[in-house]
Design goal:
The complex is a heterodimer. Chain A is an all-beta fold. Chain A has one domain: OPCA outer membrane adhesin/invasin (Lipocalin, Beta Barrel), CATH 2.40.128. Chain A is built from 1 helix and 11 strands, in the order E-E-E-E-E-E-E-H-E-E-E-E. Chain B contains 12 helices and 13 strands. Classes of the chains: A mainly beta, B alpha/beta.
Chain lengths: 238, 338
């Protein structure tokens, strides 16, 4: 199964390397998902890949300063699933683990020697997914919910008052690769997607929420995104 | 199995909820008292020279807080608040500390305003005349006594090794070189380093840098040595005199730091303006931007250069020379290069 979804919503970004106050604004997002069964464990293991791009434009509460932000996350998940029947409809419960890599950044249009904050991480994640298939007017529809929680990994961060000039021009690195775990990076992603056939296509509509947070090197960060997505899904069979 | 699964999920969500909510820590109410509090705290946690300013000019930042907090009243206007905030920041006597509002930029330029200028723009231009050359913002000319004169008014314009190499080739037959950085208020550190790298033929220790790693006044990283590496192109082998005044600030201060102590280089003029803290920018809740020194640079002897670098030869502009439309510093440098 492949699905592609586009959408937009609201973002709230707070990064104390750039400002002690949060910036808010709009964002757009594209998520491309592939999902396929495997023969492992009698077909109970499924492989999911997620390519997730977002970008947005924010302003501070007074509207005097602005930030651009954006990033790309690629996730590769293995899900173990079991299914059961409820009212003649199929309910699939899946749980698994995965790895993801992120590259992105925030650019503040007003700041001088600290104009931007680079974001990069490689994380091992926990994920769970529920898929409920049901019929409406003899057409099969799906509702699925998925969460992804980063558990442990490594991330890039400048130190509290370190300039990028020191790190990248002078080569003076200072705890710029940090150990990330649930305690200093309590983050999660949620999606709730309804898919239903329209003519020969399967349309997907849903909500995507991303709550990224970190506290390390005496810097605090959050990015809360709430998006509405719309797209399509295709099934491929061999 | 299902219970275990539910337990794990609920536990993880609980951990996230408990650990979560990375919220703003600063006051968010847009009142005069809260804005002053945020400004004071922002500086308290991020400014890098508190200890040095306490030793040199007696700044006690806690005492400053109580003194200025008492000047705040809830009905004061934005302009009145701005004045109080700027006065508070001026206690630090740092040209890199600014408060930016839509209607004004708060600053302390005492590093040059309280001193003789030792520079006259129109007299300096008379030395260049009309037939000078320009390479990446560097104006240069060969003076009548075969001394090369380079005017570097800013480090904002990009300077490439090719530009400097070409310029030095053009001046190659000169007896010596004058680099005039008076009135140069700074710019890009990389430009200053590019220019300086053409005046040494060996990797030279020129200073150290360090930065804040926490909110305490003395939470600093270790000192990292800063080396000046020779440029791959032309290296100037003859005597060079750098002309300085109190307006040599920030990246220009750093340029003088790199040049001072190099073989064949003499710093002549007045003490530089300083400004050895690389500035960062943040803001307070009413939207005013706050610029402050965040990264410290010291010289190769680990001494602060925040309040300037003394020249090797002190020369001031004389009144008599001014009357004769003659630049005392340039003339003194020319004599030394003969």
């Amino acid at each position: 199964m492949h699905s592609t979804m586009f959408g937009g919503g609201w973002a709230d970004v707070y990064d104390t390397y750039l400002s002690p106050y949060k910036y808010k604004g709009g964002e757009m997002r594209i998520i491309r998902e592939t999902y396929r069964p495997t023969k492992i464990l009698d077909g109970h293991i499924k492989v999911q890949t997620l390519a997730n791009f977002d970008a947005g434009y924010l302003e501070n509460r007074g509207g005097e300063a602005h930030e651009w932000f954006g990033g790309f996350r690629y996730s590769f998940n293995w899900l173990y699933g079991t299914s059961t029947s409820i009212c003649n409809n199929q309910l699939q419960l899946m749980a698994g683990t995965g790895v993801s890599g992120y590259l992105g950044g925030i650019y503040n249009t007003r700041n001088g020697n600290n104009p931007a904050q680079g974001k990069a991480d490689v994380m091992i994640n926990l994920t769970g997914k529920i898929d409920y298939a049901f019929n409406v007017w003899n057409k099969q529809c799906h509702v699925n919910y998925q969460f992804i929680i980063p558990l442990v990994g490594v991330a890039f961060s400048p130190n509290f008052g370190q300039s990028y000039y020191e790190a990248f021009s002078l080569g003076n690195y200072d705890h710029n690769v940090v150990f990330a775990w649930l305690g200093n990076k309590p983050s999660m992603q949620h999606s709730l997607i309804v898919s239903f056939p329209v003519a020969k296509n399967i349309v997907c509509v849903g909500y995507y929420g991303e709550f990224l947070q970190s506290t390390w090197n005496n810097l605090r960060y959050h990015q809360y995104s709430n998006d509405i997505l719309i797209g399509w899904k295709k099934y491929f069979t061999l | 199995m299902e219970k275990v699964f539910h337990f794990i999920i609920i536990s993880l969500f609980n951990i996230i909820v408990l650990c979560s909510c990375v919220k703003e820590e600063y006051p968010t109410a847009d009142t005069p008292a809260d804005n002053l509090e945020s400004l004071w705290r922002l500086m308290d946690e991020h400014y890098c020279f508190f200890d040095y300013k306490k030793q040199t000019i007696g700044v006690d930042w806690d005492e400053v807080h109580s003194r200025y907090a008492s000047k705040i009243n809830p009905k004061m206007t934005n302009i009145q608040l701005f004045e109080v905030c700027c006065n508070m920041l001026s206690e630090l006597r740092d040209g890199h500390v600014n408060l930016g509002a839509g209607f004004d930029m708060g600053r302390n330029w005492s590093y040059w305003q309280n001193y003789p200028e030792n520079f006259n723009d129109s007299i300096q231009r008379s030395y260049l005349g009309n037939d000078f050359h320009i390479a990446a913002g560097l104006k240069y000319k060969i003076l009548e006594d075969n001394v090369g004169y380079v005017r570097c008014a800013s480090f904002d314009t990009g300077i490439g090794h090719g530009n400097v190499g070409d310029m030095l080739s053009m001046l190659g037959l000169c007896n010596g070189l004058i680099i005039d950085v008076r009135g140069n208020g700074g710019g890009q550190l990389t430009n200053a380093e590019t220019l300086a790298s053409h005046f040494t033929n060996k990797k030279t220790l020129v200073g150290y840098t360090y930065h804040k790693i926490g909110k305490g006044h003395n939470d600093f990283s270790s000192l990292e040595p800063q080396y000046l590496k020779p440029a791959s192109g032309s290296i100037w082998p003859k005597k060079t005199i750098v002309l300085t005044n109190r307006q040599c600030f920030s990246a220009t201060n750093d340029f003088v730091k790199m040049m001072k102590g190099l073989e064949n280089v003499i710093i002549l003029g007045d003490t530089t303006g300083g400004g050895s803290g690389m500035p960062f920018t943040q803001e307070i809740q009413n939207g005013w931007s706050v610029r402050y020194s965040a990264v410290v640079t010291v010289d190769k002897d680990k001494k602060h250069i925040e309040f300037g670098i003394a020249p090797d030869i002190v020369v001031s502009m004389s009144e008599t020379d001014l009357m004769r439309r003659c630049d005392t510093l340039i003339e003194q440098a020319r004599k030394l290069l003969q």
